[in-house]
Amino acid sequence: MSGTTQTLRPRTVTLPGGLRLETVEQGDPGGPVVVLVHGWPDSWFSWSRVLAHLDPRLHVVAYSQRGFGGSDHPRAGYAVDRLAEDLVALCEVLGIGRAHLVGHSHGSFVVRRAAEEHPGLVDRMVLVDSADRVGGRLAAEVRAAIADLPDDVPEGFVREFAASAVYRPVEPAFFDALVAEGRRAPGWVYRDAWEEMVAVDDRDRLGAVTAPTLLVWGDRDALFDRGQQDRLLAALPDARLRIHEGTGHCPNWECPRALAADLDAFLLPGRRDTRAASPGGAGGSGRSGGR
C-alpha cells in the first residue's frame, strides 16, 4: 500500500501557554498514531518524501518544533527536556493517548527524552541516524561554524551544511525546498538548539526505556558512526538496527521509500517482517530482548 498519494491536512496547533506549532496529518484518523520529529535545523518538510510512501492505515502527524519552520520562534525553551514537553503537550492537545514516536538526528534525542519521562505515551520508537551522545570534534566544529550566524541565516550556509549530511544524490527541487525551510529558523535558534543537544547525556537512562526500538542508520553517515549505533543497541533493552548501505545521515531525504517500508514493517501489525525486526536480517543487524 506504500506509494499511494495521500492528502496532507495542515493545521496550526496551539499548546497550553500559547506556543503555536505547524503540523500536518495524513492517513486513517482511527489508525495507529505515528508522530514524526525532525532534525536540526529542519522542519516537518524533511519528512515529506517519507510521508508520500507510508501506509495509509497509519495516522501520521509531522510537526515543526519550536523555533523551526512555520512554528513560533520564542527566545527560550530549546533544551531537549522542553522540546520533549512540547511533543507530549502536542499529543495531549490532539487527543493522542499512545503513539509510535519517530525522530531523526536531533529529533531522536527529543523522542528518547519523551520515552524516558512518559513511557505510557510511547508504543514503539524509531531513532533515525541517532547517537549515544553528541560531543568531541563534531560538537566543536559545528559550534564554530554557527558562532556568528546572523538571524537571517545565509542560503549558502544552509546549502553547504545540508549537502554535507547526505551521500546519495537528492532531487534538486526537493533540496532547494529543504534549504528554504532551514532558513526559516533564525541564527540564535541554530545556536541554542545545537548547544542544548550537545549538553544531553541520557546514557544512564536508556536502560529504563520500555518501548521496542528500531535504530535506522546510513552506513555513509558523516556525523554519527557505527560505534554510536552499537552503543545505543547495548544500552536499550529492546532494540534492533536497520542499516541502509550507501546512505548518509538523512535516509528520510535519500531513500524515503525504503525508510517508509521500514516504518510500515515495524509499526503496523501484520506488516512487521524479519528485515526490520530480527537480528541479522537483510540490510541490518540487531539485538532484541535481554541485554
Automatic annotation (TrEMBL):
Top-level taxon of origin: Bacteria
A Pfam family this chain is assigned to: Abhydrolase_1
Entry's Gene Ontology molecular function annotations: hydrolase activity
InterPro entries reported for this sequence: AB_hydrolase_1, AB_hydrolase_fold, AB_hydrolase_sf
Annotated ranges, domain AB hydrolase-1: 32-254
Record's keyword terms, sorted: Hydrolase
Keyword Hydrolase tagged: yes
Protein name: Alpha/beta fold hydrolase
Natural source organism: Geodermatophilus arenarius
